[in-house]
Structure formats: C-alpha cells, structure tokens
Amino acid sequence: MHWLACCVHDDDLVRVQSPLSVLNDYPPFNRTGNKWEAQQLPAVAGGEGVGVVVATARNVPHLASGALDVNEWVVALPEARLAPVGTWRTLCACDAARLLRVPKGLMPLEQLACARSLCTAYRLLEDYGGLKPGDTLIQNGAELPTGQAVVQLCALLKIRSINLVADDDGFEATQAMLKGMGASLVLRDNARLDDFLRAVGGEVPRLGLDALGGEHGKRMAMALRPEASLVVYGLQHGKLPSLSPSLLLYQQISLHGFNLAQWVSDEGAAAYLHMLEAIAELVKLEKLRVVTRAVLAAELSAPPGSAALREALGSHRATGTALAPRQRSVLVWADEAAAATLAFELRDALKAQQEAEAAADAEARLSGGGGTHPAAAAAAALRPRASERWADSTEMLKALKLEQYTEQFVEEEMTSLELLEEIVSRGDGERELMDALKEMGVKKMGHRQAIVSAMTQKS
User: Fold this and answer.
1) In angstroms, rounded to a whole number, what is the distance separating the alpha carbons of residues 193 and 219?
2) pLDDT tens per residue, range 255-291
3) Domain limits at 201?
4) Are strands 185-189 and 99-102 parallel, antiparallel or unpaired?
5) Is residue 355 situated within a structural domain?
6) pLDDT at residue 238 in the model
7) Cβ distance 374 to 365 under 8 Å?
8) Which uninterrupted H or E stretch holds 395?
C-alpha cells in the first residue's frame, strides 16, 4: 500500500494524546464486546488517507473474492473502535478489509484526503432537523473543513446558515471566505451573548451543529427555536455543552451525537462509497470543496522539517491572520506515478523470487531424492497449509474454480484436507494423489495439478 495523501484530522490528534481503550473499563463498554482496540506503541498515526495498491498478498483465501488489485485507488475506511491504520507514512501493509476501493481520480487528491469532513457535513444535513428551503441552521467551528462543507451544502439547498467562527485576527479573512462559499451570516464566537442574539435576529434556527462543545455549544443552543435539534459531532474543547433545564424541558431542545465512523460501522462500506460518489459529483461541478494547504513530504525531511511538521499539525487550530484564515493541512507523500513505478518494481521482484524458488526446487529434485532446496522450503514454510486456508475440499475447489468436482470428492470421502495433505506427504505422494484424482474423474491434467499444488503449498 502506497499512501498518496492524508488529512491531519482531529481524531488523529485525539488518538495520539489519549488511549481511548481506557473507556473499556467503563459502561457501556465494560458490559459489551464492542470495545476500543488498544494502540500499541510504537505506532504510526493517521486514520484517514488515500492511496494506491502496489502489491497484494498471495495465498490469502479471504481475498479471493472482491480482492484489491495492483494500481487501484483506495481510502482508509472510517472505523469506530479499531486502532488507526497509520496513514502518516508512504508505505504500509494492511488488511484489505480496512480499505475501500474507489474509482481512480474520484476527486482531486487533496479533497479526497479530506473526504470524511465532506461526508460528515453531508450526513448532518441529511439525517437531522428535516430542514427545507428557507429554514435556518446555526453552527460553530464554521471555518473548519466540516463547517465549510455545511455552508456550501446549505447554499445549494437554499438553507440560511448562521456561522460562528473564531474571534481572532483572521476574522475578516474567514468571514470573506465563508461569504464566498454562500454563508448567510458570519459572526464572532465569543461570550458577548447579547450581541450574538441580536445579530441572529428573528431567523431562529431549527438545527444547531456543534463542533466545539463546552461553552460554545451552550451559547449556540440558546439561539435555537423550540423543538429544534442540537447535534454534537466534535468536542475540540473536551466537554459536552451544558444545556439549561429550561431548554430541555420547556423548549424541548433535543440533543444528539454523530460520529461518521460509527455511521459507517452501522451502514456498511457500500453505503459509504455511495455517499463518496454523490459528493464527488458536487466536487467535480466545483460546488463543494475544502480549503487545504498541501504539505509535501520533502518539506518534512528538510533541515527545518520539525518546524514544518508542527505547523502542519496545528494549522487548523492556529490563530488566523489578517491575510488568511485557518487551514487544514494535507500531508502529500507521493504522486500516482511514483506508486505505479514502485508497483512495477515489486511485481518484477516477486516474479524473480518465484522463478528462483521454482528453479531451486527443480534442482534439488534432480540432484537426488525429491527434496526441496532450503530457500524454497523456507519460503513454503511461510505459506499457510491448505487445511489452514480452507475448511474442507468443497471450499478449496470453490477457490480453485473447480466446483464441478465437488460431488466426486464427497462420494470418495475425500472432503478432509488433512487426509489429502497426508497423502502428498508420502514418498511418492504427489503422483499417488494425481492417480487417485484421475480415477475419481478429474480428467484434465491441469485440474489435477492445481489440486495437488494447493496441497503442496505451491498455488
């Protein structure tokens, strides 16, 4: 797996700063099997990224169906409980189940690297509030990637958006950026509550989106209309908004929580891909984007690399300036051409290794005794035995696409792979199994050889 780019996401920083597996000791996790996976150190950070497959494992049965192919584009699947796959690097080996195949060039690389923020915004508007054209929404952290996406989606849906942003030196630049994206109103997020409510005016929001928590969420909840919804999808300040009893009991404000990884866990990878494709259409039409800053890997390895890395990790939380708002960093590890070159090199290296193993094995057999060359034997020892790959001969035949012989194996009581392995382990076992297969009705030499090879770990 060759990673092309990854977004510096708040979840990455949370995982580095706190071992979420400590939650396993508290309800409800201590009463269920749905626990957080411990992060073993040393570890590579990064749970979000886009990459290219440069090589695939051999003799891995669960990859036989729907396997990833070399040069395909993938993204890391959002996962609620597993440790991060580790996207802050160029190369990694990982389980294909943790990756999602996406069409090549689905979105511009930097936008695809930030796709989780785009998806979060999409789901917040799709799943909460039941907003219609003309309704009003309020959100804090509007200058962050998800907030930017919410502004643009609201503009498309003709929903009025009130956006609270950091009260810093970059306010005017942030305000101009969000206004250009279609924001209805951009306000400073500070403690001057009277000014804030006066600015909101009579456009009382039906939905509030809280990315910050704490006092920020509490202030925003006070601007909501009766029976409105407040959705918490981020806790940058580490605390839930503390709602007054009057809001809950008499205004009937409802509080919700949203996490994209949990949504993907509930709905499945196919639903996530469908959402990515819908968002990609908007990105291609230039109606949806996230403001990013690309950080090339070369900048991190140069002499001032540590300073560049610190800046990249904190860019989305740094104080804005009069010239530019806060930006989300995207770490760019390589381009598609570099990944393709590496894929060719790996393919040639693997082919050479296979040929060397075959030649060594043939030489050992000719030199006396049908033994196996030590190098080939060592390589074979790393491959799982047939009985470890499949439950019985029915599964093996299906994987080899020789299901037409299943009935013969059942009739001859040859369903046990351990039995077949015992046969081929004898002095002249391979020939013995070849003859037995022929008698069973496996007429084609190639089919018999494929079955014997599966038993001898040569497939």
Assistant:
1) 7
2) 999 999 999 989 999 999 999 999 999 999 999 999 9
3) 129-257
4) unpaired
5) no
6) 65
7) no
8) helix 393-399
